[in-house]
Amino acid sequence: MLRYIVKRIVQMIPILFMISIISFIIIQLPPGSYLNTLIAQMRATGDEVDMEMIEALRIRYSLDKPMHIQYFNWMKGIITRGDFGFSFEWNRPVSHLIWERLGLSVAVSVSAMLFSWIIAFPIAIYSAVRKHTLGDYFFTFVGFLGLSTPNFMLALILMFISSKYFGFTVGGLFSPEYMMAPWSWARFVDMLTHIWIPMIVVGTAGTAGLIRVLRNNLLDELGKPYVVAARSKGISTVRLVFKYPVRLALIPFISTVGWQLPNMVSGEAVTATVLSLPTAGPLMLAALRSQDMYLAGSFLLLLALLTMIGTLISDLLLVLVDPRIRYE
Amino acid sequence: MRSYRFLPVVLLLVLVISATAAAYQEAPTLAAKVAKGELPPVEERLPENPLVIEPIEEVGTYGGLIRMAHRGPSDATGYYRTVREPLVNYNPSLTQIQPNLAERWEVSEDGTTITYYLRKGLKWSDGHPFTTEDVLFWWEVQNTPEIVPTIPGAFVRDGVPCEVIAIDEYTVAFKFPVPAAAHINWIAAGGAETFLPKHYLSQFHKNYVDEETLNQMAKAEGFNTWYELFMEKAGANTQWRAVGMPVMDAWVITTNFDDPILISERNPYYFKVDTAGNQLPYVDTLHRILVEDIEVMKLQLINGQLDYITRHLWTTYGDLPMYMAYQQQGDYRIIRTNGGTPGGINIMFNATYKADPVIAELINNIEFKKALSYAIDREEINNVRFSGLGNIGHGHFHPQHPGYVEEVDKAYTEYNPELANKILDDLGLTARDSEGYRLRPDGQRLTLIIDGSTHHLHHAAAGELIQSYWKDIGIRLVVNIIDRGLWEAKREANEHMLTFADLADPLIPLEQSGHQITYVIAPLWEQWFQSNGAQGEEPPEDAKRIMEIYTVLAPATADDDVRAAYVREIAEIWGRNLWTIGTVGVPFNLSFAKNNLRNIPGDYVGAHSHPANPAIYQPYQWFWK
Amino acid sequence: MARKKIPAPAADTAEALSTTEEKIFYASQWRLMWWKFRKHKVAVIAGFVIALMYLGAIFAPFIAPYGPTHRDRGNIYVPPQKIRFWDENGFSLRPFIHPLKVTTDWETFQKVYTEDTSRRIYIRFFVRGKSNDDQYKLFGLFKSNIHLFGVDEGYIHLFGTDDLGRDVFSRVMYGGQISMSIGLAGVFLSLILGLILGGISGYYGGVVDNIIQRLIEVIRSFPQIPLWMALSAAIPPDISPKLVYFGITIILSFIGWTALGRQIRSKVLALKNEDFIVAARLAGTSEPKIILTHLIPSFMSHVIASLTLSIPSMILAETSLSFLGIGLRAPVVSWGVMLQQAQNVHTISMAPWLLIPGVFVIIYVLAFNFLGDGLRDAADPYGN
User: Fold this and answer.
1) From C163, C237, C350, residue closest to B461, measured CB to CB
2) Residue B182: inside a domain, yes or no?
3) What's the distance, CA B254 to chain centroid?
4) What are the pLDDT digits (tens) for B226-280?
5) Whose CA, among A154, A207, B105, C153, lies 20 to 30 Å from B281?
6) Residues B359 and B460 in one domain
7) Domain check: are B28 and B135 in the same one?
8) Is residue B63 part of a domain?
9) CATH classification at residue B354
10) CATH code of B115's domain
């Protein structure tokens, strides 16, 4: 097993390089460069656009150099100095920007993930055991309601309702008076009055999916002879269900659970933008759109790495859960 | 020298005040600090002759917080336009230039030299004296290519930068190679502030400290070079505002632009007082809450979470019914202010379109464009997108502008599809295909493509309407809404056929450089101008004349009548060529203020699209009642 | 599939079979599944709803009183109108609506629509459309301007009108044509890719597995946004938006199969050493046949769950790209496009009826899910 893990980690390096090259090319595939976004921004706000200044910026940002040289310089910085380059839009080193926001991203993602697991597991098991009852249909309906509503809209509607009928403040994770305050019990409580919207918005889509997948996989297991046999021997339903069927029904879920890792960074960028959450997702989205290439490229590298680690974790978990699975 | 007309009054006032009111009052928070010995008394903090501000409604009271919203570092301009303190300033109705940091100024007879006389005893927000040294230092920074790649165009004439000369501690002159009298209008209207705190920033500049040492400092803070550090410390990308850097504004920022709230606290050394001798500002703190989505800003507004907002929502006239319906809940009032978008939805034809010669010929044909213009039902656009408040016309200039020519603005704007059809028939475009679309001379279906941006919500909606109007006269329109950066890249590459105009495109201020205008209607002409005829395509005489007015004639004079005549000439040239056809524009901006936030000037609907909104409405004298 | 379902009747009771039993005994597998499916009431209803929705989509131009771009000029944000059978003047067999009086409140800049209850406008059936915008070609062949219902005077807006004064009901009808067709193609394509590549990866293991899994990682790390931006710049703007959208769904499914692929792989990994698979292998069954007839049916439930789950995301996918300016564009209309245009505070607070297309998406997905459920139960060899 150890050999397998080492082998997988060694394999990551060439793939990471490959991904970095592909990403770098694709980021610059759209016509124009960051400077076009800059010009558009300045024009939209009525600022004067000085073409000579734009030309000078082109040289300063090395945008006049061929792509392979840009790539080489960027890689050299990463490997030799751990320097991920400079964000044009923010005028700051990339490393200053990314880490600041990752913390909150993880907080929101983990809470949404827990929210969706805590809700999804019991409901899925209930729905499978009590198949085709009123409760089953009800949860199915609610789940699909969440799934079929675009996250963007759900966020707006929840914000509208929470502000109009409950008087909560909208936008961000804190009320203004706590935004810049140091951590305290009051600030934590204040966060709880805000975090439920992203939690629900980000959580619902995943919850419905999880319920369906678990329920249907459980149904496959529950009908199998070994379950029928066990039941006829008088083993209680609860014990029975948890002993094997649930474990086996989790297999497809576990096979992709590692991807929650990259999702913590990139997941739900659109929702976070709408909710004005200072997380990493919107930053990455904006960087990709404005072709702020070193910032975008660094994000993509990070995501690639997390995806690969996540896949590995999933593969290892699979073996743990189901001893029938072997990697040769 | 028109600039002097009002000066005696103000000077008199100043003299009266400084003679009689020896005792100035200050905010309670500052008084407490003075009592503790943390601050010098208010008399020592104010300049010798503070600027006295006439209250809009009444003398206010101290305290409180104003909550606004912004979109982070890329929106730093919004903050700048709220707190800006230039050497001289316009009055709220934008009719006069007034003293600000400079108590008076002179423009030389030939219009080449502008001399400013600074107030004596002005202090930066950390108490350090403000002198012409700081202006010279600013000029030094402008001449440091690592920091400012090229000197801003407003300080360059005919390719030669102006000279900045400090005559003494309080007198500084800007000397241009050619007449540039209108430069002061630009400064007052919203152009650059021309000073930086030398005593603070020089410690990060290579002219004052050894470059090696600076680079070491930069490395220690995670930057690669000294100038990256300097730009960070000076806020070079956030309109020269940064935490720790002294300013002359009424408030000083204490958090960063990418923090959840940009907080600014009162500047104890601010140089303005009200008529009762109270040091301004009244309000202790400004908050700018980071909101990335405009819809959320609207929600916050109607939910009463914002005390004042104009930027970002100022042209959302389509949402007026909602703003009205929630006025009670949000406890705000709606104020109309200067600006607006005279050419709100404007269709521009690329005069140097090359990809398709047949289309290129058509979209340069005035008759063809007249037909397109007659086919548009502007009343409907006005009702649907602008709640009926709009101004129908081509929107070259604001209706209040002294250079506005109604006949030119309204020409060919009535809805007359029959006439449009007739014009097209007369042009020989009579053959039609099975779906009723006209055929081009080469037998293909006549298809026009208009580009718009996903950032501008009007583009898609107006595009759908115009598509249906032109379908009625047998012309197929493809509405191509793309990402903002791509939209810009396409224009730059001269690939667009038709395009929607940007908000900044209306041809209002003569303070702006003409390049923005030719750049949009004809990228190849712009290249020709930029390269002095080496590249691009030679523009027609009319375009050259417009450029001459923008770059040479108008900047040279500060005479409003002469400038108005220039504007009329531009409008006539523009109308003659139909480079653009306008639909509907709205002659004012929307702003929203809490009902008990007072001293905000009422509805000012003027000609200028004033860039320094709301600074021009004097936030330092707003107060909570 | 239902191979273990029927117990082999003992020879000595064969003659004593009742007619029902005889029917079951001789019925084919498919027939058995159909019988089981029929018992599943909710699934039958769901199937009926789906059929109805597709009929609605096929005949959309006929059912919709107006064309999708036909504007009731100036009458923007008309709230949904009620169809009535009675009013203060009594009952009428022919349904009618009350005409709307429009006033603009210049205090609030709002259009105020009030029903004029003193007058009735009767709904007529098989009426001619009001303008050329309402003309259509049924099945792309028969040119017509006859609509199922309409009114002689003014307009009828069952679901109200939108920001330009277009009839929301008509747009929902037309929108279904796109939303229920093109997106589905993408769903099936990624299903097939996921099944095949996931199946191969799990079944063969070793190098093949490693290559496919690494490929999945590369695809997952692929920067999509710049890719779409580059495409939106490269695609000529005047080619058919439907074609572009079809292309997008194809690309989306080439990216979207990875999660399903990994899930299938894990299922196959767990099952491939089960007795019945080993038995089949020993019996000399070819490998593709093992995968297709033995492995895949044993996780059919999972496949159906994944299938129904990906439908809403495909319908909404067309909108998730619209902020980049890629996807469907006017005059083509779909539920996703309509929802996208409704995503603002103004709509939610002032014109919530513009969210109606969302109700249709939900009904469609729910019906699909219950239908899939019924099919699964019917196909389940162990179910009872």
Assistant:
1) C163
2) yes
3) 25
4) 998 999 999 988 889 999 999 999 999 999 888 888 999 999 999 999 999 999 9
5) B105
6) yes
7) no
8) no
9) 3.10.105.10
10) 3.90.76.10
Task: Return the domain boundaries, chain A.
Answer: 108-321
pTM value is: 0.86
Shared domain check, B242 and B109: yes
**Phi, psi angle pair for B274, to nearest 5°:** -90, 180
Using left for φ > 0, alpha for ψ between -120 and 50, and beta otherwise, residue C165 falls in: left
CA atoms within 13 A on the CB side of B295: 22
Amino acid at A193: T
Spatial CA neighbour of B228 closest among A68, A298, A299, A94: A94
Same domain, B568 and B439: yes
Neighbours of chain B (3+ CB pairs under 8 A): A, C
Q: Please, what is the average pLDDT of chain B?
A: 87
Asked if the structure places residue B74 within a domain, the reply is: no
B117 shares its domain with B170: yes
Q: Which residue in B has a C-alpha nearest to residue A57's C-alpha?
A: B149
ipTM: 0.82
Contact assignment for C349 to B326 by CB distance below 8 Å: yes
Nearest by Cα to A296 from A10, A30, A12, A76: A30
Asked whether the beta carbons of residue A46 and residue B73 sit closer than 8 angstroms, the reply is: no
CB contact under 8 A, C259 and A259: yes
Q: Which domain holds residue B487?
A: 346-585
Residue B300 placed within a domain: no
pLDDT digits (tens, 9 = 90+) for C191-217: 999 988 998 898 888 899 999 999 998
Check: CB of residue B617 under 8 Å from CB of residue B601: yes
Average pLDDT over residues B149-172: 90
Residue numbers in B near A176 (CB within 8 A) = 67, 261, 287, 289, 305
pLDDT by residue (tens digit) across B376-424? 999 999 988 888 888 898 887 777 777 788 898 899 999 999 999 999 9
Domain count, chain B: 3
**Does the distance separating the beta carbons of A46 and B503 come in below 8 Å?**
yes
Which of B246, B280, B298 lies at the terminal end of a domain, its last residue?
B246
Q: In this model, does residue B505 exceed pLDDT 60?
A: no
Domain finish residue from B211, B246, B281? B246
Domains of chain C from N-terminus onward? 81-156 (no CATH), 170-378 (1.10.3720.10)
Q: Which pLDDT band holds residue B359 (cuts at 50, 70, 90)? A: very high
- Rounded to an integer, the average pLDDT of B524-544 is 87
A26, A308, A318 ranked by CB distance to C266: nearest? A318
Backbone angles phi, psi at B475, to 5 degrees: -120, 130
Helix axes C206-220, C182-204, angle to 10 degrees: 140
Render B82-101 in DSSP notation, one character per residue. Answer: HH---SEEE-TTSS-EEESS
Alpha carbon A285 to chain centroid, angstroms: 12
Give the distance from residue C145's alpha carbon to the nearest chain A alpha carbon, in angstroms: 34
Q: Which residues from C are below 8 Å from B when comparing CB atoms?
A: 69, 71, 73-74, 76, 104, 107-111, 133, 163-165, 229, 232-233, 237-238, 322-325, 329-331, 343-346, 349-350
In DSSP notation, B218-262 reads: HHHTT-SSHHHHHHHHHTTTTTT--TT---SSSEEE-S-TTSSEE
Token pair 């912004």 in the structure block, residue: B70
Tell me the C-alpha distance between B240 and B80, whole Å.
9
- List the CATH code of the domain at A108-321: 1.10.3720.10
Name which of C46, C55, C51, C39 is nearest C367 in CA terms: C46
Collapsing DSSP states into helix, strand and coil, what is residue C71? strand
CA–CA separation, B346 and B69 (whole Å): 29
Same domain membership, residue B124 and residue B21 = no
Same domain, B97 and B36: no
- Per DSSP bridges, beta strands A92-93 and C146-151 are unpaired
